[in-house]
Amino acid sequence: MASPSPPPFITATSASDPNPATDNIRTRTLRLAGEVVLTFSEEDVPDPPAISYAHRGVNSLLADWDDDSTRWPGTSPLTIKGVPIAVKYWSRVYKYWKSSQWQGVKKNWFDWKVLVTAITAAPSINEFWAKYSVPGKDGVLQRMKYTPLLNQLTRERKAEDARIAAIAVQELTPEQLTYRNGGQYRVMRKVSTIAARYRELKGLVAPELGDEEEEEDN
Question: Residue 184 forms beta bridges with which residues?
Answer without folding.
Answer: 181
